[in-house]
Write a structure and sequence with these properties.
This protein has 18 helices and 18 strands. It is α/β, with parallel strands linked by helices. Helix 14 packs parallel to helix 17. The relative contact order is 0.11. It binds 5'-O-[(L-methionyl)-sulphamoyl]adenosine.
């Protein structure tokens, strides 16, 4: 992973019918941590995010608010979705909107190509549709409604009634790709992750695939079908293409061959679109399939997926205003196994902030730096004799670096952080057992004091490099206080334990200040 190879990673593009909640921010942060990690590993990393702006859902919201869908999308993108990136500190390389000309024009090229190659035919769709999911539904996808919808069939995700459509549509011959897809899952076991998601996708495809309706003709908010402008492209067909139109498909071949194929990070609710429909579209067009598709779990509230429509959404700023963006990033990446569902609680967030970030990491950094200032006038010692205890820290630095890198290559972000935290815990234990404050009292222990402080400073430097993708702001401050040379984000993460260090420390403010106010 350190050979300068391309690492193109994407988030889903977000519907602009509403403002973001922490479930959306969770997807963004996970992709950003992976992108930052790969950048620091010397890879040509490229993070794409953006917004999904066509379709009935947006059209209806805009109409209900008395504006055009484009006006509505512009407003939400500028006031909510782009600001989200600042709020949780995302370093994206591009932001695509499906209303961008570069997307619309090249999505049309893709569609025309499939049409010319005979993969598309005219038909009629008669069946259910959930506007919340923007998805055609089978009767088996529906459940019995409750409360005001008792006696009706409702969408299992949105708990609201689906609509019955009867429209002339264009269809994509997706059914012809079932065998190729099964071969893909078989030959490339990492294509869909985690394993449970892969199994689900395989059994879904084994049941047989239907052809897919890829246009709508009862409204006009979308990309026009190039050979028939009485139809607009089905919003998911349009949206999935963002991953290639943003990467240069149809207009910048050099960029496209540099970036593609991508790693897609998506919520498990939209896994099938990415692991079935999307590779089938690409196979039809003769384009390489994605590198992998990872379906992460949901943030749950009361055991259900957090969502705005169910009024359980928490705005990311509610957390970051109090705890800061680093704590947001750390908490969700650490507390939830990536790929599993997780429940958010203010108590858990506060407890981890205090014990892991403030006491575990922040205090360690402040104490070590304060001791170098106090006992060595800020000069980082250069000892030559080390004991076994010092060597053990050295070994942990190397082990944490390797284990974290290995975990990231498996997209196991929580495991990477856990491996790094072994170093935090060992360094804390080391300071307690070596008692540098006691060594400082006796000039005869000077050499030992210097070896301990040097070892602790070097361990902190390793931590700064390793934790930079997760808590970029705190580690940048720490790096500066350690007198690290160059930008922290330029330090090779796969060689974090080899950092060469500075000569002087400078005072460090509390990295994770105590939070007094009660929250919740
Ligand atoms: N527009 C489509 C994606 C098109 S990608 C070509 C979409 N948008 S969305 O805004 O509804 O959701 C975007 C992402 O947010 C999805 O990955 C979804 O799983 C994620 N989340 C929405 N609610 C979530 C939680 N409660 N928890 C975790 N992630 C959640 O789907």
């Amino acid at each position: 992973m350190s050979d300068g190879s391309s690492f193109y990673i994407t988030t889903p593009i977000f519907y602009v019918n509403d403002v973001p909640h922490i479930g959306h921010a969770y997807t963004e942060v996970a992709a950003d941590v992976l992108a930052r990690w790969h950048r620091q590993a010397g890879d040509d990393a490229w993070l794409l995010t953006g917004t999904d702006e066509h379709g009935q859902k947006i059209l209806r919201t805009a109409t209900a608010n008395g504006v055009t869908p484009k006006e509505w999308a512009d407003r939400l993108v500028e006031t909510a979705w782009k600001p989200l990136l600042q709020i949780v500190d995302i370093k994206n390389d591009d932001f695509i909107r499906t209303t961008d000309e570069r997307h619309e024009v090249n999505a049309q090229k893709f569609l025309q190509h499939l049409y010319d190659a005979g993969h598309i035919y005219t038909g009629e769709y008669e069946g259910f549709y959930c506007v919340g999911c923007e998805e055609y539904k089978q009767p088996s996808d529906l459940i019995d409604g409750t409360g005001e919808f008792a006696g009706q069939q409702v969408c299992a995700i949105h708990s609201i009634p689906v609509e019955l459509l009867h429209e002339k549509n264009y269809f994509f011959r997706m059914s012809t790709f079932a065998d190729q897809l099964l071969a893909l899952y078989e030959e490339n076991p990492d294509f869909v992750q985690p394993a449970a998601a892969r199994n689900e996708v395989i059994s879904f495809v084994k049941q047989g695939l239907s052809d897919l309706s890829i246009s709508r003709s009862s409204f006009d908010w979308g990309i026009k079908v190039p050979w028939d402008d009485s139809h607009v492209v089905y919003v998911w067909f349009d949206a999935l293409l963002n991953y290639i139109t943003a990467a240069g498909y149809g207009h910048d071949d050099e960029k496209f061959s540099r970036l593609w194929p991508a790693t897609h990070i998506v919520g498990k609710d939209i896994l099938r679109f990415h692991a079935v429909i999307w590779p089938a579209m690409l196979l039809a067009a003769g384009i390489e399939v994605p590198r992998r598709v990872f379906g992460h779990g949901w943030l749950l509230v009361g055991g259900e997926k957090m969502s705005k429509s169910k009024l359980t959404g928490i705005a990311p700023s509610q957390i970051t205003d109090t705890f800061g963006s680093d704590a947001f990033r750390y908490y969700f990446m650490r507390a939830i196994s990536f790929g599993q569902d997780g429940s958010f609680s203010w108590e858990d967030l506060s407890a981890r902030y205090q014990s892991e970030l403030a006491n575990g990491f922040g205090n360690l950094a402040s104490r070590v730096i304060a001791m170098v200032v106090r006992y060595c006038d800020g000069e980082i010692p250069t000892p030559t004799v080390f004991t076994e205890d010092d060597e053990l820290i050295r070994a942990t630095e190397k082990r944490a670096t390797d284990a974290a890198g290995d975990a990231i290559s498996r997209l196991a972000i929580h495991e990477a952080i856990a491996a790094i935290w072994e170093l935090v815990d060992e360094l804390n234990g080391y300071i307690t057992s070596q008692e540098p404050w006691a060594l400082a009292k006796d000039p005869a222990d000077r050499a030992r004091l210097e070896a301990v402080l040097f070892t602790a400073v070097r361990g902190l430097g390793t931590l700064a490099v390793l934790l930079s993708p997760v808590v970029p702001q705190a580690t940048a401050k720490l790096w500066q206080a350690l007198g690290g040379t160059g930008e922290l984000t330029d330090q090779r993460i796969d060689r974090a334990w080899q950092w060469t260090g500075g000569t002087h420390v400078s005072p460090l403010e509390a990295l994770f200040p105590r939070i007094e106010a009660t929250v919740g």
